[in-house]
Amino acid sequence: MHPGGAPERAARAAASAPYARAWRQAWSFPEPEPPAAHWPDEADRWADELRRVGVRRAVFVTGGGNDAVADVVDRHPDLLLGFAHHDPYAPDAATELERAVTERGLRGLKLFAPLLRGPLDGPDLDALWGTAQRLGVPVLIHIGHYGSAGGLTFGRHGGPEELARMARRFPELPVVVPHFGVQYVQELLFTAWGCPNVHVDTSGSNQWVRWMPYKLTLEDLFRRCYETIGPQRIVFGSDSSWFPRGYVTRYLDDQLRICRELGLPDDHLRAIFAGNAERLLGLDD
C-alpha cells in the first residue's frame, strides 16, 4: 500500500525534518517523545489525557494493525474507539474489515488515498465498499498532500474524481474526508454538494492553506462548508497523535471560536463538535 521502499521513505522523512521542527516551533509544540515501550502504558496515558481535558470519547484511526488498535480500545472501552486500517487491495480486505468490525468492535475504516496502488472507484474495491456500506460503518479517506511538509504531494490514484464516483456508486456508505480535502477544497465541496453521503472533517492545523494559489483561511473553510452542505456533514477532528503534546486543545479552541464568530447556533455547534461523529460511529444512544 505504501509507495517506495524503506530507503526512499527514510530519505523523505529526513528531508521533511527541518520543516517539521519549524512547524512545531511556530505552534509551540514540544518535540515528540518515542512511544512507550509497552503499549498498555501508552493506552493508559491517552486515557488519562482524555480525562484531563474533558473529552468523552476519542477515535484511534491507525495504530499498528487492526488487532493492536482493538486491544487498545478494549483496555479503555469507556473512552476509546478504533478504526480498521489495512491494505484495501489484499484479497481478504473485505473479510478483514468484517472481522475487525463484528469480532473486534472497530467502528470504521481509514485509508490514505495517495498511498493506494489502484483507484478508489476500481472494481477491486467494490467488495470492501459494499461490506462497509452493509455494516453501516464510515470510511475516512485522506486525499491530497500526505505527510506534512516534505511529504507526498499526491498519489497516482485516490484523487477527488475517483472519490466522487465511488461515493455515487455506494450512496449509503458514509464517507469522511479529513483536513477539508487539503488542496482539493473546490473538488471536495462539489463532491459533497452532489453526494449526500460525503462528509468533511476539520482535523489538524490545516497549515496547507498557506500554499494555496488564492487566499484561504480556516474561517473561509468553515464558512464555505457550512454554506454548501450545512452543519450535519461537518465533523470536528483533533489530529492528536503524540506525546508530550497530547490532545491538541488548541485546534479545538480555534475552531470553536471561529464557528461562534460566524454566528452558528448552539445546536449546529453540537452537531459539528460531537453529534455528527456520534451518529457516524453508531453512538446515538
UniProtKB/TrEMBL annotation:
Q: Residue limits of the Amidohydrolase-related domain?
A: 51-283
Q: Which GO terms describe its cellular component?
A: cytoplasm
Q: Name one GO biological process term.
A: secondary metabolic process
Instruction: Tell me the InterPro entries matching this sequence.
Output: ACMSD, Amidohydro-rel, Metal_Hydrolase
- GO terms, molecular function: carboxy-lyase activity; hydrolase activity
Q: Which source organism does the UniProt entry give? A: Micromonospora craniellae
Keywords in alphabetical order: Hydrolase, Lyase
Source species taxonomy: Bacteria, Bacillati, Actinomycetota, Actinomycetes, Micromonosporales
Quote the protein name from its UniProt record.
Answer: Amidohydrolase
Q: Which Pfam families does this entry report, sorted A to Z?
A: Amidohydro_2 (PF04909)
Per its UniProt entry, which superkingdom is the organism in?
Bacteria
